[in-house]
């Protein structure tokens, strides 16, 4: 079993992830964000808001994770639906799940273009203060940290061969 | 002519987003009916078959996905030629071809804009020879 990082180097995966984030923010939220090439870390930091987790399948195994604060999640949901969500509104979790889905879809599109056959799962959303998303194995995460309206956002991906 | 639309997507946020985009895109929208998976979409389609003028569906959904949903819709007599547009993150050429074989008329990838939805709806209506243009007169 080989590590896909050899085929898709960290920098390239970071670029794919960044492209997906930029397309999503510019199209859905009409806002730009400034991104670097991303960090490479073994464990995701604890999250104090919501996490959307989307599994990757096909010829690879992996995950795409999107994390943001509850405040940012509410704002994104309002931008998507045009309606301000109420306290504890289920739509906020649904909105974060959809963001994770679109982010994973964007990454999948770019991986497909390199000949890597990828399928994506239905998103899972976790909410808790704090929680930590972990994965088995020793493949590091490629992580992008950025802000939107001052709120910290994290997008991450981790991919290995099936 | 107002378009009565069936929206099929497992995400409530996405259904609201698509409904908003349809209205903001300047299309003459009548009633919007929602379903959270293909199975419930088929139930709604059978119940409202004569009234539906447009169907928009996701592909990747639990219970019944969008491809099987379109296949089932095309078995319903009044919906054999009703425009069906897939709105999904699945952008692979093979998936698009499978959706078309199943009976879909058009394809929009997420993320999308109101303009993109409007363009695709008008394009599909034109391709299918629907004479009355579903543009809002208000």
At the third CATH level, what is the topology name of chain B? Rossmann fold
Instruction: Tell me the radius of gyration of chain A.
Output: 15 Å
Assigned CATH class of chain A? Alpha Beta
What's the end-to-end separation of chain B, in Å? 12 Å
Order of neighbouring strands in the sheet with most strands of chain B: 2-1-3-4-5
Give the CATH topology of chain A. Answer: Chemotaxis protein chec
Number of helices of chain A: 3
Question: Could you spell the SSE succession of chain A in H and E letters?
Answer: HEEEHHEEEE
Helix percent band of chain B: 40-55%
How far is the N terminus from the C terminus of chain A? 8 Å
Per CATH, the superfamily of chain B is Response regulator
What number of domains of chain B?
1
**Could you tell me the number of beta strands of chain B?**
5
Task: Kindly provide the radius of gyration of chain B, computed on alpha-carbon positions and rounded to a whole number of angstroms.
Answer: 13 Å
What general outline of chain B do the C-alpha atoms trace?
A: globular
The assigned CATH architecture of chain B is 3-Layer(aba) Sandwich
Which structural class matches the secondary elements of chain A? alpha+beta
Query: Which quaternary structure do these chains form?
Result: heterodimer
Question: Element order, helices and strands of chain B?
Answer: EHEHEHEHEH
Number of domains of chain A: 1
Average pLDDT metric of chain B: 91
Secondary-structure map with pairings?
The complex is a heterodimer of chains A (162) and B (138).
Chain A: H1 10-28, E1 39-41, E2 50-58, E3 60-68, H2 70-81, H3 90-113, E4 118-120, E5 124-127, E6 141-148, E7 151-161
Helix pairs in contact in A: 1-3, 2-3
Chain B: E1 3-8, H1 12-24, E2 29-35, H2 38-48, E3 54-57, H3 66-73, E4 84-88, H4 93-102, E5 106-109, H5 114-127
Parallel strand pairs in B: 1-2, 1-3, 3-4, 4-5
């Amino acid at each position: 079993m080989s590590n896909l990082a050899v085929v898709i180097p960290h920098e390239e995966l970071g670029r794919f992830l960044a492209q997906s984030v930029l397309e999503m923010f510019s199209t859905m939220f009409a806002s730009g964000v400034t991104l670097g090439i991303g960090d490479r870390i073994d464990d995701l930091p604890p999250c104090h808001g919501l996490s959307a987790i989307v599994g990757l399948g096909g010829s690879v195994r992996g995950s795409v994770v999107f994390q943001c604060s509850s405040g940012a999640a509410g704002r994104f949901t309002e931008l998507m639906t045009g309606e301000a969500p109420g306290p504890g509104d289920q739509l906020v979790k649904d909105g974060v799940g959809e963001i994770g889905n679109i982010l994973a879809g964007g990454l999948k599109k770019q991986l497909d273009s390199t000949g890597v056959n990828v399928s994506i799962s239905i998103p899972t959303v976790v909410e808790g203060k704090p929680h930590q998303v972990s994965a088995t194995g020793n493949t590091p995460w490629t992580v992008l940290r950025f802000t939107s309206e001052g709120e910290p956002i994290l997008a991450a991906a981790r991919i290995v061969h099936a | 002519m107002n378009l009565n639309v069936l929206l099929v997507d497992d995400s409530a946020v996405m259904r609201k987003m698509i409904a908003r985009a349809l209205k903001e895109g300047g299309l003459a929208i009548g009633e919007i009916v929602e379903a959270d998976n293909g199975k419930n979409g088929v139930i709604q389609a059978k119940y409202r078959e004569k009234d539906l003028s447009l169907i928009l569906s996701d592909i990747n959904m639990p219970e019944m996905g969008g491809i099987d949903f379109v296949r089932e819709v095309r078995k319903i007599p009044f919906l054999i030629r009703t425009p069906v547009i897939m709105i999904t993150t699945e952008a692979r050429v093979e998936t698009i071809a499978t959706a078309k074989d199943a009976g879909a008329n058009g394809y929009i990838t997420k993320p999308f804009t109101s303009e993109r939805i409007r363009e695709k709806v008008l394009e599909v209506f034109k391709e299918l020879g629907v004479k009355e243009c579903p543009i809002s007169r208000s």
